[in-house]
Every structure is written in structure tokens, then in C-alpha cells.
Amino acid sequence: MLGGGAKADRAREIFWPYHQRIESELDRRQEASRPAIVISLHSFTPVFNRVARPWHAGELYNHDPRFAHRLLALLNQEKNFVVGDNAPYSVSDVSDYTIPVHAERRGLHHALIEIRQDLISGENGQRTWALILARLLPQAYRELATH
Questions:
Q1: I want to staple 84 with a disulfide (CB 3.0 to 4.6 A). Which of 32, 55, 102, 114 is the partner?
Q2: Cα gap 147→135, rounded to integer Å
Q3: How far apart are CA 145 and CA 98, in angstroms?
Q4: H helices of the chain, where?
């Protein structure tokens, strides 16, 4: 566990520069009248508290589930996938930052995607998931725009 000084150093060196960069990019896109969507990508352990997790991926959201539900429906159409609906975690104003601050406060479509770590531990799995998301994210966005 990080002590107070180490936490402050990590926040100053990593957390705030990361979020300031997201904010400036979203500001730039808004000023240029370019659409934006926020995708937060994470991974989760295959086993937690000695219990195997059944999901290949999880689709997480907070107050606005529209984009996440579109993406969830598309992921569920993929062969042999078990996709969690706000599982293995969920997004909240208390426990999360990127989605509540960068997406919801701006009224932007968004999703937090969790992928099970053993599925992306190697280059083949990473490539597979990159191709899946490269195909499904634009499709979910297009479908949302037409409904």
C-alpha cells in the first residue's frame, strides 16, 4: 500500500497529467466541433477471492447506459463470449474518475470496458481484442446515432 507521500507523488506524476491530457483533448475536439466519445479500457483478474470469474469481458456504465448497452449487445453477439453487464465491477461517482468527470459531466457517450487479463496477456489475445473493439466500437456508435 502506498504511503501519503508516495500517493501524492503518483498523483502528481501520473494521475493528473493523464487526466489533464484527456481534458485538453476533449476541449480541443469540442472547440473544433468534432464529435467525441470516451472509452476507458481496463482489465480484471480471472480469479478473485479464489472464485473463477465467468466473464470474458465486462461492459460498465454509471448514469447513462446508452452506448454501453449498444456495445454490450454487440459483444453478446460474438461467439462464445460471456460479457458482464456492469460486472465484474460497476462505475460510480465515488469510485471512478474518467467516466463521471470526462464523459458524464460533458454529456458524452462513453463506456468502460474490462477484459479478463488472461485473454490479453499475450500478443495474439491483444490483437484479437483490438480487432474486436476496432470493429464493434464504431458500429455501436453508428447504431446509437440512428436510434
A1: 55
A2: 19
A3: 23
A4: 4-10, 16-31, 66-77, 123-146
C-alpha 118: how far from its chain's center?
Answer: 18
Same domain, 135 and 80: yes
CA gap 64, 12 in Å, rounded? 30
139 & 76 share domain:
yes
Cell numbers for 97, please give them: 474518475
* Tally of domains within the chain: 2
d(CA 57, CA 10) in angstroms, rounded, equals 28
Q: How confident is the model at residue 1 (pLDDT cuts 50, 70, 90)?
A: low
Residue recorded with cell 456492469:
86
Same-domain pairing of 31 and 55: no
Distance, in Å, from the CA atom of 33 to the CA atom of 23, rounded to the nearest integer, reads: 15
Mean model confidence pLDDT for the chain: 95
Residue 57 sits in which domain range? 37-146
Rounded to 5 degrees, φ, ψ at 91 are -95, 140
